[in-house]
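Is cytidine-5'-triphosphate placement plausible here? Inputs below.
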Amino acid sequence: MLAGKRVLLIIGGGIAAYKCLDLIRRLRERGAAVTPVLTRAAQEFVTPLSVAALAGEKAFTDLFDLTDEAEMGHIQLSRVADLVVVAPATADLLAKMAGGHANDLATTLLMATDTPVLCVPAMNVRMYEHAATGRNIAQLTADGVRFVGPNAGDMACGEFGPGRMSEPMEIVEAVQGLLADGPLKGKRVLVTSGPTHEPIDPVRYIANRSSGAQGTAIAEALAAMGAEVVFVTGPADAVRPQGVAVVEVETAAEMLSAVEAGLPADAAVFAAAVADWRVKGAGASKIKKVKGKLPSLEFVENPDILKTVSQMKKGRPGLVVGFAAETDDVIANAVAKRKRKGCDWIVANDVSPETGIMGGSENAVHLISEEGVEDWPRMGKGEVARQLAQRIAKALD
Ligand code: CTP
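Reply from A.M.:
I modeled the complex. Tokens:
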């Protein structure tokens, strides 16, 4: 619930702006107050009158409206909210934000605000896939801006692909995740998730069967309890968690760099199934098939991210949680792994094919700490995530 919270909603100039009318209703139903701001282009798609009527508040449009300046300066307007939501975040708005422009009311507010910002991208698929948009989103993510969506599907322009704005309820969920008052409010938690892909050549890679489901559920559970979550994921099948900063990587080396860039954190949860080895000298040319001759691959060890962070002399998170995916002697292996890596807890699970855990929706884990071993009953991965988040909250209290 969002009672007592205020959202500054910046509506950008895209056809998806019409969804903001419903978004305002859904936010208000949950108790949030909404202060709407429309860019000039947004007013071509929805009118300030309909936005103001649904918000029950004045819709702001102009930086140089002196009445507004007298009633509420633009700096003050940028500070009244608990969260700024930019929807639709068009390619142009994202570029202006990434470049630090401030030439109208919306961009000036975004530069002046000291509250978290959630962007909801919406644009043509080619524009979304354009290198410039990718650069701008990466820059904004590094600056701490959060994203929800876009979704893939049929677009108003007749094309198909990623670029559709998230639905109002998806945005509401992300807003709730960011504004949730919970025991982890004010805490920053880093989560790794998914597999890594290690290239053999430009078209082949080595990977593993991790779906990213457990890591995603943990990130969502931590965010729902109020944590600021940095989610570093390899190429996983699981839908990206809502309301958290997502950093996408491919290889173990990239994951380590992203983790180091994501620190400091109060806690870190390493749920990724990182490839232990990479192919030495994976080159830019495709290995050709030669009849009667099998290629031989030479491996080199990947950095152990969990171990590196657990053994950091400076800036180690207060609580470091690793996972152990085992097929034999689960407990004994996991107890030894906790010592070897130097982490505080290990969440151990049996990933033998007959358990159906890898790629499935349930998990049966053992929580191993200095105090000993706790056996948790088999339950949904969401429930494992919620119970783990509760334990993390208790440990950080
Ligand atoms: N891990 C990591 N970096 C690696 C390998 C593993 O951060 N290069 C982390 C995983 O995210 C997990 C934990 O270490 O939290 C255990 O990973 P696992 O693959 O089960 O253990 P290994 O150290 O690879 O040991 P083994 O393969 O012998 O079981």
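Short version: The chain has a mean pLDDT of 92.
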